[in-house]
Structures are given as structure tokens and as C-alpha cells.
């Protein structure tokens, strides 16, 4: 992806920057910011700005002169074409407008993503070099009189297959575990809470699990939480995002909820890699629109710890 799908908005800063504005002014300003984030610098044309902001040209002129205009500076981009005939510039001699802080945030996000890609590339190279350096081990060692006899390779392969056959699949989307199987998780969390080492949020986790079971009946939340119990704080964040996904993305649902939670947890553990995500998305046969929505949530989670915008 060439464009970052989201940026962080600091509520306090945005409120103080627009205090005293009317609701229409705030809405027009916000729409202009969204348009710039998606499409780049704003045109220096009163009519186009009015359409983007959702107001009439007369109101746009008033807002620009009294409040909104001070939030934008001329964009020094020679690629932006000059205004054609019939256009009404908001200021002569300017090609386009941009919000300085928005563009600074865009640059910071781009640099962060490039660093992540470079780190992933270097990590992959080191892992490949280690695999080349590590000598291959023999399949079996000769037995001695003092060592117990080892089972034959064929027997080991059969046992491995039997063990793997008993293990549930990673996503475990179609298998249900009774609620009683979650009792060990609840007891562990309760012991931590009673001993003073817990965080006292086990009840909230159980509530999230129950709500997700209704929203995603094929997603085995109990099993997922048990397998990731040490990272339960991040699992809790992932479960919350999964519950709000349908609201944020206008009725859409996640087709692979277990993998979605994995990616959100990875973003909180700071080991998310976009290249790996794109590869896994193809393997999971995600459509481009769903992959874009999921990546939007992931970068929104990353942005909560890296920077923001007003």
C-alpha cells in the first residue's frame, strides 16, 4: 500500500484548535482534512473547496477568511496544475493548499513503515544466513550399549502424525469447546486477582468472550484465549476491536476472526510486519477491500502508540 489508511486524531488538541467554531465550520474543516489525507493537497478553487466541505461557495468564502483558512498553507508542488478558466481562487498566486501537521504526520508514518519493511528484510536475511550456517543433523544417532534403544524413524513419523491429528487447527473456526473448558482460564485469572498479581479484568474478558460467541459463533474464543492467556491484555484489545469492527466498517464482518485477532495482538507487541500480512492475506484468500479494512484497524492500533494529528 502506498497510502496510509488512517491517522490519529488527538481529541483535546482538535477541540482547542476549533473552540468557538460552529458545528458547520468544524464539519467543513474535518472534511477538508479527510480529503487531503486521501487525495493530497486541496485545490485553490472556491467552488471545489465548497463541494468538498459540503457547503455553498458563499459560506466557504466566509469560513476560509474567518477561521479555516489559517489552518492551511500554500503547497509547494510543481506537479499541481494551474487553475483553468472559470475557476475562482481563494488567493491569487497559489496552486494548492495543505495542512502542515497533516503532511508531517503522513511523512512520519511513511518513514515508520519503511523502517518496519527494512527491519523485516534484514531479519529475514539474518535468519536465512543462520539456516545456511547451521549444519544439518543426522536423522538418528547410532545406539550404544549404555543408551536405550531408540524407536525407528518410521515409528516416530507415525507417532508425530498421530499427535498432529489430535491437535486442533490454528484458526479453529468450526470447532466448539464447551464453556466449562474455560474454567481453568477463569480460575487462573481469579487466583491472580485474589493474590494481588492480577489486573482484575477477568470478568470483562469473560463478557467479551460471551459477546463474541454471539457475533461469531464459529470463532472458538475460549480456545483462542487459553492459547494466548499470557498476552490476555492484548487479546482483550483485539476482542474489543473485533466487536466494534461491524460498527466501524458499516455492517461488514471479519471472515477470519482468529487471524484478525492475531494481527491486532502483533501490532500491540510491536512485531507486526506489513509484508507478512499481505502474504498471509493472500493465503487466507482475503478480498482487497477486507484486507484494506483490517489493515486500517491495525495501523489505527499502532498509531495509538506512535503519534497523531489534530
Task: Give a description of the structure.
Helices cover 58% and strands 2% of the residues. It has 310 residues and is mainly α. It folds into 2 domains: 11-103, Orthogonal Bundle (Arc Repressor Mutant, subunit A); 179-303, no CATH class. A 3-stranded antiparallel β-sheet has the order 1-3-2. Helix 2 (23-39) crosses helix 3 (46-53), helix 3 packs across helix 4 and helix 10 (232-248) crosses helix 11. The longest helix is centred in the middle third of the chain and has 34 residues, at 100-133. The protein is globular and about 70 Å long. Residues 167-186 and 192-201 have low confidence and may be disordered.
Entry keywords:
310 residues; mainly alpha; Arc Repressor Mutant, subunit A; 2 domains; 3-stranded antiparallel beta sheet; 13 helices
- The number of distinct β-strands equals 3
Compressed to H and E, one letter per element, the order equals: HHEHHEEHHHHHHHHH
Number of domains: 2
Helix content estimate: 55-70%
Poorly predicted segments: 167-186, 192-201
Number of helical segments with 4 or more residues? 13
Structural class: mainly alpha
Largest sheet features: 3 strands, antiparallel
In angstroms, what separates the terminal alpha carbons? Answer: 24 Å
Q: What is Rg? A: 27 Å
How would you state the average pLDDT, rounded?
Answer: 74
Shape: globular
Strand content: under 5%
Strand order of the largest sheet: 1-3-2
List the helices and strands and how they pair.
Elements: H1 11-17, H2 23-39, E1 42-43, H3 46-53, H4 57-66, E2 73-74, E3 96-98, H5 100-133, H6 153-166, H7 183-195, H8 202-215, H9 221-227, H10 232-248, H11 257-268, H12 274-283, H13 288-303
Antiparallel strand pairs: 1-3, 2-3
Amino acid at each position: 500500500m502506498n497510502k496510509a489508511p488512517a491517522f490519529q486524531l488527538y481529541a483535546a488538541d482538535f477541540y482547542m484548535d476549533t473552540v468557538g467554531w460552529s458545528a458547520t465550520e468544524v464539519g467543513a474543516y474535518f472534511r477538508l482534512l479527510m480529503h487531503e489525507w486521501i487525495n493530497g493537497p486541496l485545490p485553490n478553487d472556491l467552488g471545489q473547496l465548497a463541494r468538498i466541505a459540503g457547503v455553498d461557495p458563499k459560506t466557504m468564502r466566509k469560513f476560509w477568511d474567518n477561521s479555516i483558512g489559517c489552518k492551511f498553507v500554500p503547497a509547494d508542488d510543481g506537479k499541481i496544475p494551474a487553475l483553468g478558466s472559470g475557476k475562482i481562487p481563494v488567493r491569487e498566486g497559489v496552486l494548492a493548499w495543505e495542512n502542515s501537521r497533516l503532511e508531517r504526520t503522513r511523512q512520519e508514518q511513511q518513514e515508520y513503515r519503511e523502517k518496519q519493511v527494512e527491519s523485516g528484510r534484514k531479519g529475514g536475511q539474518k535468519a536465512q544466513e543462520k539456516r545456511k550456517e547451521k549444519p544439518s543433523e543426522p536423522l538418528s544417532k547410532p545406539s550404544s550399549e549404555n543408551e536405550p534403544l531408540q524407536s525407528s524413524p518410521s515409528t516416530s513419523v507415525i507417532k508425530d502424525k498421530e499427535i498432529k491429528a489430535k491437535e486442533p487447527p490454528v484458526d479453529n473456526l468450526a470447532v466448539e469447546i464447551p464453556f466449562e473448558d474455560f474454567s481453568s482460564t477463569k480460575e487462573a485469572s481469579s487466583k491472580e486477582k485474589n493474590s494481588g498479581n492480577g489486573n482484575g479484568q477477568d470478568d470483562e474478558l469473560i463478557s467479551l468472550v460471551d459477546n463474541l460467541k454471539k457475533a461469531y459463533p464459529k470463532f472458538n474464543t475460549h480456545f483462542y484465549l487459553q492459547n494466548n492467556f499470557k498476552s490476555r491484555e492484548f487479546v482483550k484489545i483485539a476482542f474489543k476491536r473485533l466487536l466494534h469492527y461491524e460498527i466501524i466498517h458499516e455492517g461488514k464482518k471479519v471472515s477470519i476472526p482468529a487471524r484478525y485477532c492475531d494481527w491486532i495482538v502483533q501490532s500491540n507487541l510491536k512485531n507486526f510486519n506489513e509484508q507478512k500480512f499481505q502474504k498471509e492475506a493472500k493465503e487466507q484468500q482475503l478480498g482487497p477491500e477486507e484486507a484494506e479494512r483490517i489493515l486500517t484497524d491495525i495501523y489505527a492500533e499502532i498509531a495509538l502508540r506512535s503519534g497523531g494529528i489534530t
